[in-house]
Amino acid sequence: MSWKLKKKCLDLLAGEDGGVRKIWGEAVTICLAYPNVYRTGMSNLGFQAVYALINHHPACLCERVFLPDSGDEALHVASAGSLFSLESQRPLVDFDMVAFSLSFENDYPNILKILDMAAIPLTAKARGEKAPLVIGGGIAVTLNPEPLADFFDLFLIGEGEALLPDFLDAAVAFHRKLKREAFLDRIQREVPGAYVPRFYRVATDTQGRIAAREPLDDAFTPRIVRRFAADLNSFPTEQVITTDNSDFGGMFLTEVSRGCRRGCRFCAAGHACGPVRFRSAATLAASFRRGLEKRKNIGLLGTAVSDHPELIPLCRSIMEKGGSVAIGSLRMDRLNGSIAALLKETGVKTLSLAPEAGSQRLRDLIRKGITEAEIFSAVDNLLEYDIVYLRLYFMVGLPTETDEDVEAIIRLVKAMEHRARHSSAGAKGFRRLTLSINQFIPKPATPFQWCPLEDTAVVKRRIRRITTSLRGERAVSVIHDLPKWNYIQALLSLGDRRVGELLLAVHRFEGNWAQAFREVNLNANFYVYRRKETGEILPWDFIDHGVEKAFLASEYRKAVETTGGTDL
């Protein structure tokens, strides 16, 4: 083992507060992996929540591993030992299980990199009895685990608080008493939400669509139920480990809500993460108290933070104790004078808002539920309280989007800036309006799951049009992602098991997607650019996300109706 790498681990641990160290012995040992670097992984509240859940079990031990920083990869390769955990610097092969927390599809190639660096066979079928079980969980695979099916022994579908206690109890009871296959068999039969891909057979027709899907044993459920925690007040979801070496190092993160009742047609969180649930002020008070002992800035997280019925009292309770509040994003129709005054009082300097689309037609089609009048009302309220740094999120490539809809984004942004200057006679105005332009990517378990991705060339042209047209606006800057990576994200979001062969090739060619596409006989456009039929079997249809496919299809048809019958 490289002393430089070990020292880096020790330095990271020395900068942490709240970590758990357990003694190796009879406990079931689990290395929790985040397929990105430490700084990113430690900013993920879900990752920290799972770490706490596993270590809370008296018969389980959890340590962590991350993708090595780019400058450290060569040291790991040159080192005699394989990739090791942060806490004890033990090789991953020494653990009973390696569990990946998966939030983003674009991190999927890093899974194979971590397994390879840990000397763990990449595919589930290649692993012997002594190899750690490789487990996956998180929102990305809860939506659709199939592109990763060949690499994982087991997926846990749903929210960790509802699912992990059952799984950990079974792991403690059976893991060291049963052989690998028998243990997985037992888990598949007895733990709702567990999914062992190799226990299910998938058949395709001559066109490549899924023709049938069935379990190899009648005892296995044909549908996997997404587990969810009905009562958020029965447990906290908060930052367990604080460290300055993370993207949110200066604040303490705590979750105030899950799910969303708004029903935006593009949003997986509003459909597959429901029902909407809010933690009470009484429950959150204890979390705020713990947070203020570590940090003065409390970050409120959730899909619908601005819809929390007690948002203002929650913020005031933090401020009364000498703390400040950070809210990632607010709905524009909630940004009234009271909220703006509160934000000013908390010291908020930059606020994120998401109009999503420039035209009312498109906002109605995606069911965003905000009007242009509400957008300008929000602008007026922000300016009144001198909140003059704003980040606006827009999507391009939405279903039925035209060049005129893109022009509407440009007009809306210019109107917001001009209104700001005019209302203050030039004395105020926005200091900075940052536009974050993201391409719409169809997601499983949403009404737009049947839609194709917009062509990369079209998206590039529309982003260029926005950037060029706003270049002369003094306060406006435009940032955007790269359309080619959106294509890959859509492929990994919407793909089936055959996409795993492409991921293997990408790993073999050290991240060269172009070479992998040439090497593998797979029509990626079939998954990305094809409009699906509402009656066909989709790769993720075997998961019960808590929302009926018939409802999603109904919402899809309603969106079609808003276009006057034009197909999406």
Secondary-structure map with pairings?
Elements: H1 3-14, E1 16-17, E2 28-34, H2 38-41, H3 45-56, E3 60-66, H4 73-78, E4 97-101, H5 108-117, E5 133-137, H6 139-143, E6 154-156, H7 160-174, H8 180-190, E7 194-195, E8 200-204, E9 210-215, E10 224-225, E11 242-243, E12 252-255, E13 257-258, E14 277-278, H9 281-292, E15 297-301, H10 311-320, E16 324-327, H11 337-346, E17 350-356, H12 360-365, H13 372-384, E18 389-396, H14 403-423, E19 432-439, H15 456-469, E20 476-480, H16 483-494, H17 499-508, H18 513-519, H19 525-528, E21 543-544, H20 549-562
Parallel strand pairs: 2-3, 2-4, 4-5, 5-6, 10-21, 12-15, 15-16, 17-18, 18-19, 19-20
Antiparallel strand pairs: 1-11, 6-7, 8-9, 13-14
Helix pairs in contact: 3-7, 5-17, 9-10, 10-11, 13-14, 14-15, 15-16, 17-18
Would you write up a description of this structure?
With 568 residues, the chain is an alpha/beta fold. The chain folds into two domains: 3-225, Rossmann fold (3-Layer(aba) Sandwich), CATH 3.40.50; 351-568, Transcription Regulator spoIIAA. Helix content is 37%, strand content 16%. The strands form seven sheets. It has a six-stranded mixed sheet. The radius of gyration is 24 Å and the shape is globular. It starts with a helix and ends in a 6-residue tail after the last helix. The mean pLDDT is 94.
